[in-house]
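Hey,
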Amino acid sequence: MGASHPLALAPVAGPASSVDGFVRQFLRNLNYERGVALSASSDTDRYFAFALTVRDYLMARWLEDLRRQREKQSKGVAYLSAEYLLGRQLDNNLLASGLTDIATEAMAACGIDIDDLRAQEVEPGLGNGGLGRLAACFIDSLATLSVPNTGYGIRYEYGIFRQTFEKGQQVEQPDAWLTLGSPWEFPHPEASRRISFGGHTETYDDEGTERTRWVPGWHVQAVPYNYMVPGYLNGRVNTLRLWSAKATDSFDLRVFNSGDYEEAVRAQTFAENISKVLYPEDSTPQGKELRLQQQYFFVAASIGDFLEHTLPADFDLTTLPDRIIFQLNDTHPVIGVPELMRVLVDEKKMDWDAAWAITQKCFAYTCHTLLPEALEVWSVDLLGQLLPRHLEIIYRINDEFLAEVRERFGDDEMRIRNMSIISEFPDRSVRMAYLATVAGAKVNGVAELHSQLLRDKVLPDFNEFYPGKFTNVTNGVTPRRFIRLSNPGLSSLITDAIGTGWATDLERLRELEAHAENPDFRAAFAEVKAANKRRLDQVLRARDGFEISDGHLLDVMVKRLHEYKRQMLKVLHIVTEYEQIVSGRVAAADIQPRTFIFGAKAAPGYVMAKRIIHLINAVGEVVNADPRVEGRLKVLFPPNYNVTLAERVIPAADLSEQISLAGKEASGTGNMKFALNGALTIGTDDGANVEIRELVGDDNFFLFGMSEPEVEALWARGYKPAEFYQADENLRRAMDLIASGAFSGGDKSVFEPIVSNLLYDDRFMVLADYSSYIAAQAKVDAAYADQDAWTHAAILNVARCGFFSSDRAIRDYIDRIWHTPPVL
């Protein structure tokens, strides 16, 4: 790392790890950073001073780790991700640094309840769902395993939107998480990088060698904001570096003085749009352009930052693969491939073949989807307009790659068209997953089934062409946040039973199996679950005015709202239960009492997903108000589901809904979190459900639905959803009730598009799996009636799911892809 870099500082001593030392540092920060005395301070002042004090304890080790990495120059990981769904940082940093007890006692000595400070923290919504939460888990595990890592991403001014409901319909509001600032970030405007767009390319003679240079049309500044990422109780602190966009010339005084105030700041507004919002709505050409600007902005800044600031000045770039691996978290950062080639060939004046050999060893690609529409493509016209040099490089990569294909397979034009990075139909576009596959040293899926389908069905020609390139790394979650922090009761119970150390060696949970046979342990486990339900009840009462009824099975489905995740199937189950009672076909007393909890956001432009949200809320409004089902069924949909709420919902859940159509979910990580917190899963054989079921056993998992081969066979025969509607009375009654306007004030038109979609399209086969799902739910009811047996199964779920630690996932990446040793 060059001496000019903002982190190239001498190590400093941290404050003493004692209550008195913490109090002194807290008061110093309150006085000198916030400018107030304790007696005159607000809760916000106290939270910021408290957070800065925790930060101070981490800084000395952070700077020391950076110094040692500069000295050793060992291989590290640059994790490139458009999302980081971090959750609140305060408790995580207290836990990682072992300061929780000291900090709690110190605040009590100052007359402050630490819970009041926790309540002030605003969660940064820098992710959309599983992809961003996975990135946050991975950088946590990299630090815990002492592997040098910088996570790179975007500091969105407005994260994922704040969701509210108006008359049951989703309304998106800005998530202004930075209104009061963030105590966890270190801005470094002096280390800004200039990022270019547009313009044209030209060739020139460089002492007898013809070269190309990019002549950009406009530029923005990428300003880095650094966050510390502490490992768990190991003293390691890595870095998350998020980029914010600023104008190179943000203010024109001459224009301002002429009275044209709007034009005077036009450049600033235009530039700052790039990091304004997480995933701008991209159904318009302007939205698509902004999305591509975002992607190039952060990868160009990140690659340039590493090459120029992290590497020593005399570094031999031919050895770059020995120093770094750029991990592409899905297709969003794939534009980094031509960017590295541009830097090596155009700026460093390296031979093309040598640069390409380096590039192919420096990138690895994680694919997170099986849905064709989620495999990102960019139009050639847009790329040529925004990044003309990169488009030229992509064309050359493709030409040379297809030449290799022809050499291997001859002039098989169908194969060549299928494998070309440039697609000609329906419009000429660049297939970013193909580019990542050609350029990446490895390509991995994120669950065994997903990786198999990726090899066999999504990219089969590439798997044949590159034997050994494809591998699997099943996802994982950090047990620090999703057991230690979110479920302190269970955490204490585990420690009492098997001792300490399991939070970094999660397979040790296997030791709980023997305790599942102990009735006293089962009783203690059941009390932890009951306490978690009471805690969730308090949260939802204060947050949303909701109540969780005593004795109810807590049936939870929380995830992004997408048709393939099949929230609609869950709605049909609820409507079926409701219809059976109100029609008199089933006595209310014979229905297992349940509270159904949903949490989900729909993308702003995803019309059908938003209609499903409206239907869920409408069903809830009717069911919750109907005295005929009172005490038996309740539907709750707290708005604005996020990590903070997840940390309360997941530990309280009895049943985890993982009901995607087989072959559509890449992995899932919510399924892992629920199982590790003692919820039983009802699910299809999809994504990581397959591995969960294999580990916990069929007796402790409620399997339903078609397998992936059966799904494919039904499509091949010709799927007619209306036939399933006609054949199943319960399904027919449920859908007819929705169609009748029973949940829309008698207006049949409100939910008619949902009913028609199910009857005549149903591309995720909700109706085909309905009967099997209802039968599986009947098994859930029967199992829950025996509370002791249910608790026994829940304990076995916890005991057998230690495999799903993100620490294990990172070790798999290290062994199979990265080959990055820890720096101790």
